[in-house]
Amino acid sequence: MLAHPTLDKLNAMGLSGMAKAFSELAANGEAEHLSHAEWLGLLLEREWSSRYDRKVAARLRFAKLRHQATPEDVDYRADRGLDRALFMKLLGGDWINAHDNLAICGPSGVGKSWLACALGHKACRDDRSVLYQRVPRLFAQLQRLMNVDQTRFTNKSLRTVQMAVKGWRQASALEILSGDWMTPVLPPAKSFGNLLR
């Protein structure tokens, strides 16, 4: 069997992970001892892994997480009063599906945003949409959008608001709001409701 036409067809079909695995297996002398089912299983596993990795990378890029935190990096020994069992339950994500809210509270510098980013990273790996935003910036953007004459909205600003609202309403979405909650930039409730319609 010719390898080059097979590789060309795999790449043309968008199966780049499978094509890379095919070329590696063809070059490996030990791969000759594999059965057809084992060979195909390895190719399919590599293609699935490649697609999963690309999807997670895209979700993490969209999430714009402030910290490169992962659940595996959480130090439960640090003196911040973190309950390991509770955090492991939060990592499960049932609270996201139930549309529950989570507020991580504590003194400055204990890693609240870092822990939120770790939860966001796990949510991305669990095929959930995540968006990290600083509260003062979010409220300032909403205030700016409400002060603009609605006939002057650009398509980009409308899409931004629509995506934010859609993200808030999705069952599998996690929005991380970080920052100073005491900043008095909240818009009046009536105009805020008009914006979200």
Order of helices and strands: HHHHHHEHHEH
Unreliable stretches (pLDDT < 50, length at least 5) are 182-197
How does the major sheet shape up?
A: 2 strands, parallel
Structural class: mainly alpha
Mean residue pLDDT: 77
State Rg.
Answer: 23 Å
Q: What does this protein structure show overall?
A:
The protein has helices at 3-12, 16-27, 36-63, 84-92, 94-97, 112-125, 135-147, 155-169, 189-196, and strands spanning 129-134, 173-178. Mean pLDDT is 77; it is low at 182-197. It is 57% helix and 6% strand. The chain contains nine helices and two strands. The longest helix has 28 residues, at 36-63. α3 packs antiparallel against α6. It has a two-stranded parallel sheet with strand order 1-2.
Question: Which labels suit this protein?
Answer:
197 residues; mainly alpha; elongated; 9 helices; 2 strands; disordered C terminus; two-stranded parallel ribbon
Question: Short description, anyone?
Answer:
This protein has nine helices and two strands. It is mainly alpha-helical.
Topology summary:
Blueprint: H1 3-12, H2 16-27, H3 36-63, H4 84-92, H5 94-97, H6 112-125, E1 129-134, H7 135-147, H8 155-169, E2 173-178, H9 189-196
Parallel strand pairs: 1-2
